[in-house]
Design a protein that fits this description.
By secondary structure, this protein is mainly β. The protein has a single domain, classed as Glycosyl hydrolase domain, family 43 (Tachylectin-2, Chain A, 5 Propeller), CATH 2.115.10. 0% of the residues lie in helices and 49% in strands. It has no helices and 20 strands. The strands form five sheets. Strands 1-20-19-18 form a four-stranded antiparallel beta sheet, with no helix packed on it. Strands 2-3-4-5 form a four-stranded antiparallel beta sheet, with no helix packed on it. A hairpin with a 7-residue loop joins β8 (110-118) and β9.
């Protein structure tokens, strides 16, 4: 495997990694990746893909930095299904009486997206259907759709999904879909909505993202993985007025880069972001990789205006 992390552009845009990284994960816990961090009843809850268990689990924290070290598995694999030998890469949306989870099921070199629901306070999730709710259908999607990220639009009463697609090892591009019930999805005819760029930080491909509405402009920020090559990646940001079209990469990209020789020396993957208005900052969690070891780190941006 070539070492190209030294060629990946350095972090900029006002983002700084937490000095105590990694904040979660070790050789005993094993690989933790593709996180989603949210504030739930005043506590941080981080859902993550737990490779040794082929499952999705969560941990909790008072401050988003120090985490309990006993992950709670909420959804495990189902090899009998034919498409869920491994479960990972998920998205959580809460309602007063239930919580939805969209997740990636992988088997036989393919990735598909499923849906599960919790009605017990997220202690457990039950699959809504035995079949996937989204499969690869178009040439650009190749053999895999994965990394769903879903927001619920109250004004339109629809679910909005941004997803990655392409090769199974690492996806190639990002698409968009909408659904009235979270199960039947209508993919945008404009897909893919985001493809690789011309700058070194995402010249090879783009992958898993989180999309954050901007209350000041009504637009959307997309935090996504930008690949220098299939093994080397960092975290980047783009802006769109509607979350679908006219994505413009920010001048401050990349915002988080691998630091050669460190715990995230090969790649920085799948960001999860909270816009903390009370603290006047952005908080970002990601999984960093060196060789086959992947743990969770954090970065901060003082001030709410992104460049």
């Amino acid at each position: 495997m070539p070492d190209n992390a030294a060629n990946y552009p350095r972090s900029q845009g006002g983002w700084n990694k937490y000095e105590g990284n990694p904040i979660f994960g070790n050789s005993q816990i094993g690989t933790c990746f593709d996180v989603q961090t949210q504030l739930v009843d005043g506590r941080y809850r981080m859902y993550f893909s737990w490779r040794p268990k082929d499952s999705i689990a969560y941990i909790e924290s008072e401050d988003g930095i120090h985490w309990n070290d006993e992950p709670h598995i909420v959804l495990g694999p189902d090899p009998a299904s034919g498409w869920e030998d491994w479960i990972n890469r998920h998205s959580i949306v809460r309602f007063p009486d239930r919580t939805f989870m969209w997740y990636t099921g992988q088997a036989r070199g393919f990735s598909r997206i499923g849906c599960a629901v919790s009605t017990d306070g997220e202690k457990t999730f039950q699959r809504v259907t035995k079949m996937p709710v989204m499969i690869p259908e178009f040439p650009w999607e190749k053999e895999s759709v994965m990394n769903p990220f879903v927001l619920y639009d109250k004004s339109r009463q629809i679910f909005r999904m941004w997803y990655a697609a392409g090769e199974t090892f690492e996806p190639n591009a990002l698409g968009y879909a909408e659904s009235a019930d979270g199960l039947t999805w209508h993919k945008s005819p404009l897909n893919p909505i985001m493809v690789h760029g011309h700058e070194p930080y995402d010249k090879a491909r783009v992958g898993g993202c989180e999309v954050v509405p901007d209350p000041e402009t009504g637009g959307y920020y997309m935090f996504y993985i930008g690949y220098y090559d299939i093994d080397t990646a960092g975290i980047c940001v783009a802006y769109s007025p509607d979350g679908i079209t006219r994505w413009t990469r920010l001048a401050g990209n990349p915002i988080v880069s691998p630091d050669p020789g460190s715990w995230d020396g090969d790649a920085c993957y799948k960001p999860s972001v909270i816009r903390d208005e009370a603290a006047g900052c952005w908080k970002l969690w990601y999984n960093g990789r060196t060789a086959d070891r992947e743990y969770i780190g954090m970065a901060l941006h003082e001030g709410l205006k992104l460049k």
